[in-house]
Amino acid sequence: MNTTFNSLLTRVDHILASSKSPLQEICDLLKEEVPHYNWVGFYLMNHKEQVLELGPYAGAATEHIKIPFGRGICGQVAAGGQTLVVQDVQAEDNYLACSIETKAEIVLPIYREGQLVAQLDIDSHALNPFTAEDQLFLDTVCAKVARFF
Question: Is 137 helix (H, G, I), strand (E, B) or coil?
């Protein structure tokens, strides 16, 4: 992993150890420090109602406060439980537009004790911004924050 991501993981560890609002601070950190992360947020699984509920986020306000499982990129991750990387949202039939500026999105599931409890959603204003290194970094962040859900 590159030095920027390694440094950010150290900062994530510090936030998790000392913050009263770690999830919000992590959203803020990622949005501020990674140029192609323009919106960063957590969605929480509501298995009873089969919807995702918006949690802490950094970026423009979104109307997507609740997303049904299966709908949009986030809903597909809720239904399938696997990371989805969409390098060009215009090519995705099941995309829920949050902003006209969004060009790409990565959504990663967060598991706690084998159960899907939340997800990390990141939008970018650039086409094709997400690399395998981004995914490895974000998988690590998700593993670290899982205990907060």
Answer: helix
The per-residue pLDDT for range 122-145, each reduced to its tens digit, is 999 999 999 999 999 999 999 999
> What residues make up the domain containing 84?
3-148
- Encode pLDDT of 96-106 as tens digits: 666 678 899 99
* Type of residue at 116: L
**What torsion, rounded to 10 degrees, do the Cα atoms 142, 53, 116, 93 define?**
-90
Please state the pTM of the whole predicted model: 0.95
Give CA–CA dist 71/94, Å, rounded: 7
Report residue 44 as tokens: 């929480």
CA gap 103, 123 in Å, rounded: 7
Q: Based on the structure, what is the number of domains in the chain?
A: 1
Task: Find the CATH number of the domain harbouring 129.
Answer: 3.30.450.40
Residue 66: pLDDT band with limits 50, 70, 90: very high
β-strand partners of 108: 120
**E-only strand ranges, the chain:** 39-46, 51-58, 66-68, 84-86, 104-112, 115-124
Q: Which residue has the tokens 């920027």?
A: 4
